[in-house]
């Protein structure tokens, strides 16, 4: 990650908070917080978080505590694997409950709310209950994290395509919706999120389908934050490398997955 001074995210003026709350009272905003760095949230997302009456927040959302109003009710609705988590049905009903009480409700997510974020489910539920929803897109980590670490997921003369895949479900699992065999036959870039646990099995499935074991792979943990760490490896060694990586992490596989020298 480029060594730049952190962006200071300042609270909104009280008049602005009142104006936004007045305009959006009784509604829900689904806000993408971006890949981790608080300075990468959109301006509209910043305004909505800074004016919310209620915020339902995920564990991957950026730390925006400095701009959250003092009277805002912050509700932790994190879903953590193998730990206590909040059911999606409860999240949906909580959004509607607070909106119907006349509050401006923000659902703050990491990345983009519609990229493996269940944003559509929440939007549909709210609208079925006649609650108006505003969507604020966010910078998605499968693209932003590699590029800040020195890897571009596309490159002229190298690849004409990239595929974003969830690694939450391993290859061969009855619930898997990914055609890993087809991905193994492709030449383009593969960007995997939520794939730390199953990365070794994914790499093996791609090699079994014909992907060259020496294909470059690049892993970035906690991208765009002060804790960012990256490792360059190969498809054959990916599983071993991931044994020492903790989520959240983005995995890039393909000929582009070689960082620029000054970015290492």
Automatic annotation (TrEMBL):
The keyword Protein biosynthesis does not apply. InterPro entries: 4pyrrol_Mease, 4pyrrol_Methylase_sf, 4pyrrole_Mease_sub1, 4pyrrole_Mease_sub2, CobA/CysG_C, Siro_Cobalamin_biosynth. Pfam families: TP_methylase. It is an enzyme of class 2 (transferase). GO terms for molecular function: uroporphyrin-III C-methyltransferase activity. CDD domains: SUMT. Residues 27-238 form the Tetrapyrrole methylase domain. Keywords: Methyltransferase, Porphyrin biosynthesis, S-adenosyl-L-methionine, Transferase. The keyword Methyltransferase applies. GO terms for biological process: methylation; siroheme biosynthetic process. SUPFAM superfamilies: Tetrapyrrole methylase. Its EC number is 2.1.1.107. This is uroporphyrinogen-III C-methyltransferase. It comes from Corynebacterium pseudokroppenstedtii. The gene is cobA.
């Amino acid at each position: 990650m480029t060594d730049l001074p952190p962006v200071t995210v300042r609270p909104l003026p009280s008049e602005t908070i009142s104006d936004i709350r007045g305009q959006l009272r009784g509604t829900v905003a689904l806000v993408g917080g971006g890949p981790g760095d608080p300075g990468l949230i959109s301006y509209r997302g910043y305004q909505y978080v800074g004016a919310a009456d209620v915020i339902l927040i995920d564990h991957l959302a950026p730390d925006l505590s400095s701009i959250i109003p003092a009277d805002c009710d912050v509700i932790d609705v994190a879903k953590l694997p193998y730990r206590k988590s909040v059911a999606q049905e409860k999240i949906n009903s909580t959004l509607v409950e607070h909106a119907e009480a006349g509050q401006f409700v923000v659902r703050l997510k990491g990345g983009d709310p519609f990229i493996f974020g269940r944003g559509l489910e929440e939007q549909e539920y709210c609208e079925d209950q006649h609650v108006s929803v505003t969507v604020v897109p966010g910078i998605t980590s499968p693209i932003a994290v590699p590029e800040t670490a020195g890897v571009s997921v596309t490159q002229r003369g190298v690849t004409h395509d990239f595929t974003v895949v969830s690694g939450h479900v391993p290859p061969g699992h009855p619930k898997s919706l990914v055609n890993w065999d087809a991905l193994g036959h492709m030449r383009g870039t593969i960007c995997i999120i939520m794939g730390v646990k199953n990365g070794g099995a994914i790499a093996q499935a791609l090699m079994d389908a014909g992907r060259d074991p020496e294909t470059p792979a690049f892993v970035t943990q906690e991208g765009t934050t002060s804790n960012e760490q990256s490792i360059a490896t190969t498809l054959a060694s990916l599983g071993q490398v991931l044994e020492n990586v903790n989520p959240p992490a983005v995995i890039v596989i393909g000929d582009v997955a070689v960082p620029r020298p000054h970015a290492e």
